[in-house]
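Below is how a single chain appears once it has passed through the pipeline. First comes the sequence as given, then the structure the pipeline wrote out for it. We keep one example in the README because the format questions we get most often are answered faster by looking than by reading.
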Amino acid sequence: MIAASTFLFIGTTEVVFILFIVVMVFGADKIPEIARGLGKGINMVKNASNDIKSEVTKSATKNGIDTSITKDITQEINKVKDEIEELTGSVRRKL
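Resulting structure:
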């Protein structure tokens, strides 16, 4: 049985079709450059969001706002994720 992968609600055939169009438009030589550019762009967005997150955290601690609540919530969410993974892990492996 072939499992269909989904990426942003796009199926495998759509991804293959998009890659085919990209190769046709840009050529095989330009694809590594495009991928590098996308990777750098994603990295810049990630770094910017981390900077904003750290600034908000610094500002909150400077103004005396308790940020431990978010850590507690994150821990609880991670516990639930782990429990769900344990329950669904055996089902996924059988598929």
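The longest helix spans residues 31-62.

See the next section for the split statistics.
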